[in-house]
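>> received
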Amino acid sequence: MENIEYLNFGNYKDKTKRLETYSKIIAEELGVGKETIANTERLALLSKADLGTKVVREIPILRGTIGMIYAAEQGEREIIAKGICEHYQPSFSDEELPATTSAKIVAFVDKLDEIITLYVMREQTQELDPLLVRANALGIIDIVLGSKWTLNIEKTILDGLFTLLKHSDVPINHKKLMQPLINIIKINFKDNLIRKGHKFYIIDGIMEDADFDLYDIYNRVKAMTAITESSDNDFLRFIILLNDYEKEYLNTDKDYEFTAEIIEWQELYEKKQYNDFFQSVEEFRKKNETTIKMILSKEIDHNESYDNIIIPLNRMIRSIYDIDAVFIPD
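>> returned
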């Protein structure tokens, strides 16, 4: 493996060491069991071994397939042998994901490590391959969403940079590289969501201040899209008025009392049950539509008793969807 070059950047021996280290970090971050961690480490160790065979050098498309056959012949368990083949998935949009958690982790790490490596190479004045970056980014997104993983992508990228630094002699300015790496995942994630039919002004409002957790952001976008469409945009108009109301009447010296509705919504919010949260708020809006409309449009004089529900509600909604961060077309 030491004699096989990797992307004009080191060799596959170093790449394999990174896969082992990085895969274990991600496995532990996901909270998987000891057996899965062990499977992940073994799979990472063997995942690229078939690249050293003559048949793969002559017919590169057989990478992974040959590894699976050789691993099975040499007595590796099925989960490892199949994982060697599957860890290259998905290699294109809508391709099936790896079947096991260990193969998904190695696939995720392999793709993210490749993106990080490409950006480090760019810092060394080598040309960046945008198509390869995009393919890997979309594969990462598909794995996270399809597996329903909760991961802070910023921390995950930082772990990848430090893993590369650990197994490389190349100086790496991680502070300089962090933002471009975050941005390339965000750009492709937004594109992925738009292709799924979500509006840019919903995506931008959700992503503005959210932790960079792809699956959580995806659930927020889906919930916001669903309530906006089902209410024929009435819910969107409602939260615009809520936001304007808080800006005018917020009293920073006042402790707002939590009503029964606010307590219920807070519980749904903390459990990340965004669909139920928005639906409950929408039911409240419809039930009290006339009064709420008069309050928010200032058709009646300001009454501080309404602040206890309107202002805390707006804060919760704004922590999911920042209406100030987007331009909403008419």
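>> Residues 203 and 221 are 6 Å apart (CA to CA).
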